[in-house]
UniProtKB/TrEMBL annotation:
This is CopC domain-containing protein. Residues 41-136 form the CopC domain. It comes from Microbacterium dextranolyticum. Its main location: other. InterPro entries: CopC/D (IPR032694), CopC_dom (IPR007348), Cu-Rt/internalin_Ig-like (IPR014755), Ig_E-set (IPR014756), TAT_signal (IPR006311).
Length: 195
C-alpha cells in the first residue's frame, strides 16, 4: 500500500461504514415490519353469514367473531353494511361483547343481491384492524370478495387488514435489498484488503 493512496481512501471507508449501517437498519426495519403485525393483532376468525356465500334470508344480526377480546372505546368499532344500490342496511350501532361483534340489520331496507360489509375494530393490542367481505341473499348471485383475508386462510400469516400483504411485500423487498447492499459492500471491502 503506497502512502499516496491512503488519504484518498479515508472518505470511501467512511461512506462504506455509513452504507453498512443504513443497510443493517433497512434489514432490521423490514424484519420488524414483517414480524410485529402478524404476532400481535387479532384476526377475524369467522362471520355469519359467511363471506362469499349466498343465504336465503337476510338475518336480523350480522355476527363477526375475532381471535381476541376487542377494545370497547367510543368510535373504536365501525361496521358499514350496504346492498348493491349502496343502501345502508344497518339498524343501529354494532354491539361488542368480548370477541363477538353483532351488527343488527334492517331486513326491510335490503334488496336481494350482494351485500358488502366493511368493518373496523380495535384489536386487543390497541391497533385498529379493518377489512371487508361480501355475501349475497335472496336470488342474488355471489360476488367473490376481492380480499380473502376476512376468512381464515391457512396460506396467510397476516389476516389483519387489507394492506397487510402489500406492507409485507415491501418489507421483504427491503430485506432483500438491504442484504444485497451488505453483500456487495462486503465483497468490495474484501477486494480492497487484498490489493
Ligand atoms: Cu397490533
Amino acid at each position: 500500500m503506497s502512502a499516496q493512496s491512503a488519504p484518498a481512501r479515508r472518505p470511501r471507508r467512511l461512506s462504506f461504514r455509513t452504507a453498512t449501517a443504513a443497510a443493517a437498519a433497512l434489514v432490521a426495519l423490514g424484519a420488524l415490519t414483517v414480524a410485529s403485525p402478524a404476532a400481535a393483532h387479532d384476526e377475524l376468525l369467522g362471520t355469519s353469514p359467511k363471506a362469499d356465500t349466498a343465504v336465503a334470508e337476510l338475518p336480523a344480526d350480522l355476527v363477526l367473531t375475532f381471535s381476541g377480546v376487542l377494545m370497547d372505546e367510543p368510535g373504536a368499532t365501525e361496521v358499514v353494511v350496504t346492498d348493491a344500490s349502496g343502501t345502508d342496511l344497518t339498524d343501529g350501532p354494532a354491539v361488542l361483547s368480548g370477541t363477538r361483534l353483532t351488527q343488527p340489520l334492517n331486513t326491510q331496507a335490503a334488496r336481494p343481491g350482494p351485500v358488502t360489509v366493511r368493518w373496523r375494530v380495535v384489536s386487543s393490542d390497541g391497533h385498529p384492524i379493518s377489512n371487508e367481505f361480501s355475501f349475497s341473499y335472496g336470488d342474488g348471485s355471489v360476488v367473490p370478495t376481492a380480499s380473502l383475508t376476512a376468512q381464515p386462510d391457512p396460506s396467510s400469516t397476516n389476516g389483519d387488514s387489507a394492506w397487510g400483504w402489500p406492507v409485507a411485500v415491501v418489507a421483504i423487498v427491503l430485506v432483500g435489498a438491504g442484504g444485497a447492499v451488505v453483500a456487495v459492500l462486503l465483497a468490495r471491502s474484501r477486494g480492497r484488503r487484498e490489493d
